[in-house]
Specification:
five-stranded parallel beta sheet, FAD/NAD(P)-binding domain, nine-stranded mixed beta sheet, alpha/beta, 25 strands, 29% helix, 490 residues
């Protein structure tokens, strides 16, 4: 018999996934009560946490923004403060902000098979202890650890006498004017930081062990300008067409890259070569060992990264650190760099569920030991969904596919008198299941998290999600019974 609960649904995290999920609950399941618990002082997730210069989206805002509140700025890539304002305005517009409890960190979460409820142990406002009970539990807390960045092994970094900063905890008072800055790392954060720091710094050097694909993206391209011109009579039509442009064109690009990797590689390399200064060779600095989208492709608005290289304020070095001394970085090649500031843009520590200690009937549950069902629910974890977005498209697209599927499941549960749904894999099925990565990236930070992330399977309902159009059809019409136990109230 299910016991009385405080809420039908508890969502963890008031970032892009949590706000979107709340909207879908209000839209599709209006009779369900819900709350969003977030440990931080404000909503926004990533866009509240990161404060480094130039922090911006690494995908277009027309699809990264909410489908129910179109992005109206005339730029496809936006900086963090603008995104944060958009999220706050969106939550307020729909009354979602009234359901958010900030400074509420969930320490433990236990599901009781007897009562069919989740019991959450919460620390509120730093010290107050609370118990919150719910029927359903939604993990919308993103995919990385907010408190602990990835600790890369950089020999001698502790001996450096200058300033060392990590983008995840950027010092608000850092003055880099006329300083020599070295950024260790080659991902999207480095590509964002370099042109922004170069506006004031004497020189900014990206030091990378291996190169990445860095592609320019127009803040507003010709097709978007044409759409705006032709749809002057209707903003909704304009927003719809531009959003569809950003759904279709990147989709075609990624499919092309997956199916014709050599042709895609050549296309990307020609685009990169055309923007490099004549004195900077493409090989080795811009000749990745992998094909496009095997790791995340970095995008820079209006080519600001390449503009910084051409100006001479930005530079790039490819090599391995031998050691760092009090005032230098020595490379294995014998070359030395002499920075005033070192920025360790070495990646994120991946984490599912915000570090909550999860258990079922007081038995600890390890996410990394289990498979994920349809990219949405975790094997043997009742009444729980987890939001994991795409790595080759906007995160929000995957988050919305998850939200719509879960709302469909919740409505079916109500219709059929079901109080518990839990993905199950038979022993024989599990023994024969080939494991696949849930995030299909070869990046170092993803490889290091292989025991943290759930596993995808190679067949059936356990395959990793694929792409937005297919996943939306699965959310609306797909099989939600196979591989799942539906338990009715006794």
């Amino acid at each position: 018999m299910a016991e009385k609960t405080d809420f039908d649904v508890v969502l963890v995290g008031a970032g892009i996934s949590g706000i979107n999920f709340a909207y879908r609950l209000q839209e599709r399941c209006p009779d369900l009560s819900y709350t969003i618990l977030d440990g931080r002082h404000e909503i926004g997730g990533t866009w509240s946490l990161f404060k480094y210069p130039g922090i911006r989206s690494d995908s277009d805002l027309y699809t990264f923004g909410f489908p129910w509140r179109p992005w109206s700025e005339q730029t496809s890539i936006a900086e963090g403060p603008l995104i944060l304002s958009y999220m706050k305005e969106s939550a307020a517009q729909e009354g979602i902000d009234k359901h958010i409890q900030l400074h509420h960190h969930i320490d433990k979460a236990n599901f009781s098979s007897d009562s069919k409820t989740w019991t959450l142990e919460v620390t509120a406002n730093g010290s107050e202890k609370k118990i919150v009970r719910s029927k359903f539990f939604l993990l919308c807390s993103g995919y990385y650890d907010y408190d602990n960045p990835l600790k890369a092994m950089i020999p001698g970094i502790e001996d450096f006498k200058g300033t060392v900063a990590h983008p995840q905890f950027w010092p608000e008072d850092m003055d880099y004017t006329d300083k020599n800055v070295v950024i260790i790392g080659s991902g999207a954060t480095s590509i964002t930081l370099m042109p922004n720091l170069a506006k004031k710094a004497a020189n900014v050097t990206i030091l990378q062990r291996s190169p990445s694909y860095v592609m320019s993206q127009a803040a507003e391209d010709g097709l978007e300008r044409l759409i705006r011109k032709l749809t002057w009579w209707s903003k909704p039509v304009e927003h719809t067409l531009i959003r569809w442009k950003w759904l279709v064109v990147p989709f075609l690009l990624t499919r092309f890259a997956y199916n014709f990797p050599n042709a895609a590689r050549n296309m990307f390399q020609k685009a990169i070569q055309s923007q490099l200064p004549p004195t900077l060779p493409r090989d080795p600095h811009f000749n990745p060992s992998y094909n496009p989208f095997e790791q995340r492709v970095c995008f820079c608005p209006d080519g600001d990264f390449y503009a910084a290289l051409r100006s001479g304020k930005g530079s790039i070095e490819t090599g391995v650190v031998e050691t760092i001394t009090a005032n230098s970085i020595k490379l294995v090649s014998g070359k030395e760099l002499h920075p005033d500031i070192i920025v360790t843009a070495t990646g994120l520590t991946l984490q599912v569920g915000g570090g909550i200690a999860i258990s079922v009937d007081n038995k600890p549950y390890s996410v990394g030991d289990h498979f994920i069902w349809k990219g949405v629910m975790l094997e043997d974890l009742p009444n729980t969904a987890v939001v994991i977005g795409y790595v080759d498209a906007s995160w929000t697209l995957g988050a919305d596919a998850t939200a719509q599927m879960v709302c469909r499941i919740l409505n079916r549960m109500k219709k059929e008198g079901v109080v518990e749904v839990v993905p199950r894999m038979s022993a024989s099925e599990k023994a024969g299941m080939r494991e696949e990565p849930v995030l299909k990236l070869t990046s170092t930070y993803v490889k290091k998290a292989v025991n943290v992330l759930p596993k995808a399977g190679a067949t059936g309902q356990w395959r990793a999600r694929s792409y937005y159009f297919k996943d939306m059809l699965m959310a609306w019409f797909g099989d939600i019974k196979t591989g799942m136990e539906w338990i009715r109230e006794v």
